[in-house]
Write a structure and sequence with these properties.
Length: 173
């Protein structure tokens, strides 16, 4: 196997998606994450840590909590880097928090994290830029991006293309 992308790891203590989900939100997780990264490396494969936030909707977060969410992603990414992962994948698909921000039918915010496509993608771009700063240029940075959402107010494919271009500008490969 040339590359393993882990299942999504939660970035904030109370934002996990299932009881047995792997966490990256606390420094106490680094030794276990290191064991996982080491097993991959010892078996000749590279490993990417996928990080995610679940359990919330865009309107549940205050403006300050949006900013704190971007910081939490960066801090979790840094922990996975310290554990020895070769890179990070930001999970922005499947209806979890970040994909909810991107989707017009889900994101009804009227502040800078909502409204037009640029506002709806703001959280993801802030997350990507902060994660890139945290892990540096030597580690891979990927994004699992839902291109369409399949809802009545479906996320237009053209917006997803623009989001992919903005992600590239933010340092995502």
């Amino acid at each position: 196997v040339g590359l393993i992308v882990t299942g999504h790891m939660y970035v904030l203590e109370d934002w996990k998606c299932s009881p047995r989900q792997t966490g990256a939100w606390h420094n106490d997780h680094v030794p276990g994450l290191r064991r996982l990264a080491t097993v991959c490396r010892d078996n000749g494969t590279r490993a990417i840590a996928q990080i995610n936030a679940g359990g919330r909707r865009p309107q549940d977060l205050s403006f300050r909590e949006c900013e704190a969410t971007a910081d939490a992603f960066a801090e979790s990414a840094l922990r996975t880097a310290r554990a020895g992962f070769d890179g990070v994948q930001i999970h922005a698909a499947h209806g979890y928090l970040i994909s909810g921000f991107l989707t017009p039918s889900e994101n009804r915010r009227t502040d800078a994290y909502g409204g037009d496509a640029a506002g709806r993608r703001r959280l993801l771009i802030e997350v990507a830029a902060r994660v890139r700063d945290a892990i540096g240029p030597a580690r891979a940075l990927h994004c699992k991006l839902g291109a369409v959402d399949g809802r009545d107010d479906s996320l237009p494919l053209a917006e997803s293309v623009e989001t992919a271009q903005a992600l590239q500008d933010a340092g995502v490969e």
